[in-house]
Amino acid sequence: MANVTLRNVRKTYPGGFEAIKGVDVDVGDGQFCVLVGPSGCGKSTLLRMVAGLETVTGGEIDIGGRIVNGIEPADRDIAMVFQNYALYPHMSVYNNMAYGLRNRGMAETEIRTRVDEAARILELTSMLERKPRQLSGGQRQRVAMGRAIVRQPKVFLFDEPLSNLDAKLRIAMRVEIRKLQRRLNTTSIYVTHDQLEAMTLADILVVMNGGQVEQVGNPLAIYERPATTFVASFIGAPPMNLMSTRPEEIRSQLAGSAAADAGILGIRPEDFVITDQTPAGGVALPLTVEAIERVGAETFVYGCREQEEQHVAATPGELPPGEIIVRIPGTDAPAIGAKIRVAAVRNKLHLFSGDGRKRLEA
Amino acid sequence: MQKQAIFQSKLLPYALVAPQLAIVLIFFYWPALQAVIQSFLLQDAFGLSTTFVWFENYVELFSDPAYFEAILRTFFFSFAIAVSSLSFALLLAVMADKPLRGVMLYRTLLIWPYAVAPPVVGVLWIFMLHPSLGVLSRYLRGLGIDWNPLLDGDQAAALIILAAAWKQISYNFLFFLAGLQSIPRSVLEAAAIDGARPMRRFWTVTFPLLSPTIFFLLVVNIVYAFFDTFGIIDTMTRGGPGKSTETLVYKVYSDGLLGGNLGSSAAQSVVLMVMVIVLTGIQFRFVERKVTY
Under an 8 A CB cutoff, do A84 and B191 touch? Predict the structure, then answer.
């Protein structure tokens, strides 16, 4: 049971490269914190700093009221699940889980109790004598989880633990991890690049980009009110439609409000409606349908605006300039090549400063 | 791409492998066959007549206590050379595996001794430890040690083991370093988080994961100590003093070429050949398949 607090944490490599540029995060006791961001954003480095596998070159890391900057990984009372599981290949499943307990001089009977309990929870009881190479990916993953939970640490750290599993297993394990964490009520920090995993697991979501935190908060709050265009396009799939407010077509519709200062307008695909009307204060756009994707419960309509000229700042998951995605329920969709008109109401508009770094309230 | 080469002429492929075959036949099979034949023959003291004696050379060999002493001595040498060379090389490899400044430079320097030929190794160590010429001998005597490997058989043996082990360290170092680098970092990090201190981490994770490398090197080192130490022994002690540094291979040479007992020497060669075959068999059977953990 512990809080984890990062205060202005920095990491500069000897070559001068700044991997983490001052991060402040506060994870409450028993909370599930997810660090999400594109590859190279520093999220794994940050996690490894919390684990003690990377040195901290600035700021403080506080676990359960104790500054752990100079403390060995072994003494931080944390457990970590690695992306490649990092099981000890020469040890049986039982010994993999017992290793950390033996190193701490625990009595063999207590070790057996704990390992058996963990094996029962993770359905590994019949595999305790096997070696890791005799297990499937999902089973190895569970052993890695078991190795973490037998220790009963203050904090669990997860470094993209599901990225080596196939899609179906990934969803199943995601649910398992969440259930297990709720049940054990252990503070957890989880790193992923998958925004869906991040949304579904997190109590607190930390969106990172380029070694900095873009936004921290409740996942739904972040989804509904992204602080920057980076967050807007990274969280949510398909990504938010972002467009410059420069063209007359859009500027005229936004005129007469605070929104007039905005440089970038964002609208989520599901907030568009195909309609001939323009809602008061809202935005309507004429589109030419270019492609249709039917996935059963919903349909994605890819349309092209006629007069896009300004390219919005490049961000991951961004659409080609002038392209708009509209998400509509069901399978009824306009034909390819059709001219349609889509509109979004006022309170569904996201407005950002011209550089995309600041959200503006309408 | 075609896997099988197509030749226009039927003779060309044979012509292409002929040089290699000729080398193997002339320099390996021919002498081996000669040794086997010779081991069944007995020459008189002046080399004037040769008699076919069946297994008499072998019977004589295996009833000679000196031969068993040589076998024991060779095993002891092999064991001592392999263990000291392997453990020291492992220590160096663990040190060199750490991310330190100039790591490439001293990794390269540690590999150099491998390029030194065995007789040169012998000469090097003699210059350092010869009782009257050696630079280090003075200090040893200064420490009150009566250092004279030319007279003291145990000291001579120690000298041979030292030189032979030193020569092999580079080779072992290279394999250990590669072995260490193939251990996933995350496994060691997991062990660190699991509360294993560096020493414990080494013995419970690194060492077991290196076991395939260790086993492979053990076989290679034993073969080396058996056969490739000839040059070192010949330059340093010539098997002496007495017979205290005479290994099986050196005995083949001294009995046959120096002692003129070609029949016995040939029989010893055949025994050694059998040993090589067994060792190679072990290597193929276990090492190629890899030690499982």
Answer: no
Amino acid at B214: I
Q: What local confidence, expressed as pLDDT, does residue A79 receive? A: 92
Is A77 an 8 Å CB contact of chain B? Answer: no
* Cβ contact A90–B196 (<8 Å): no
Q: What is the mean pLDDT of residues A163-179?
A: 87
Residue B84 has pLDDT above 90, yes or no: yes
Query: Tell me, what's the pLDDT at B290?
Result: 54
Residue type at B38 in one-letter notation = Q
Q: Tell me whether residues A99 and B193 touch, CB distance under 8 A.
A: no
Of B189, B197, B209, the CB nearest to A86: B189
pLDDT score recorded for residue B60: 78
State pLDDT tens for residues A205-223: 999 998 899 999 999 999 9
Q: Do A87 and B196 touch (CB under 8 A)?
A: no
pTM over 0.95: no
Burial group, residue A252, by CB count within 10 angstroms (0-12, 13-18, 19+)? exposed
The tens digit of pLDDT for each residue in B87-106 reads 999 998 888 887 777 778 88
In the Cβ-directed half-sphere of A225, how many Cα atoms lie within 13 Å?
Answer: 9
The domains of chain A are located at: 4-227, 230-360
Quickly state the pLDDT bin for B2 (edges 50, 70, 90): low
Total domains in chain B come to 1
Residue B148 has pLDDT above 90, yes or no: no
Tell me the torsion sign for CA atoms A86, A91, A96, A100.
negative
Determine the distance from the C-alpha atom of residue A190 to the mean position of all C-alpha atoms in its chain, rounded to a whole number: 9
Least CA distance to B191: which residue of chain A? A100
Q: Does A334 touch chain B (CB under 8 A)?
A: no
The token duo for B161 is: 């083991």
Taking an 8 Å cut-off on Cβ atoms, the answer to whether B194 and A99 are in contact is yes
Residue of A nearest to B193 (CA): A74
CB-nearest to B195 from A51, A88, A103 is A103
ipTM, interface predicted TM-score of the complex: 0.82
Model confidence at A310: pLDDT above 50: no
- Fold that domain A230-360 belongs to in CATH: OB fold (Dihydrolipoamide Acetyltransferase, E2P) (2.40.50)
| Amino acid identity at A227 | A
Using the Cβ of A82 and the Cβ atoms of chain B, whether some distance falls under 8 Å is answered with: yes
| Structural domain of B119 | 65-287
Q: What is the mean pLDDT of residues A179-203?
A: 91
| B194 close to A (CB below 8 A) | yes
Average the pLDDT over A266-284 and give the result: 86
* pLDDT in the model for residue B97: 81
Topology of domain A4-227, CATH: Rossmann fold (3.40.50)
Q: Answer whether B183's CB lies under 8 Å from B212's CB.
A: no
The crossing angle, in degrees rounded to 10, of helices B103-111 and B65-96 is: 170
Distances (CA, A) of B193 to A10, A20, A45, B27, B175: 22, 22, 16, 57, 28
Chain B hits for A88, CB-CB cut-off 8 Å, are 187, 190-191, 205
Q: Which of B184, B193, B200 sits opposite A73 (nearest CB)?
A: B193
Query: What CATH number corresponds to the domain at position B175?
Result: 1.10.3720.10
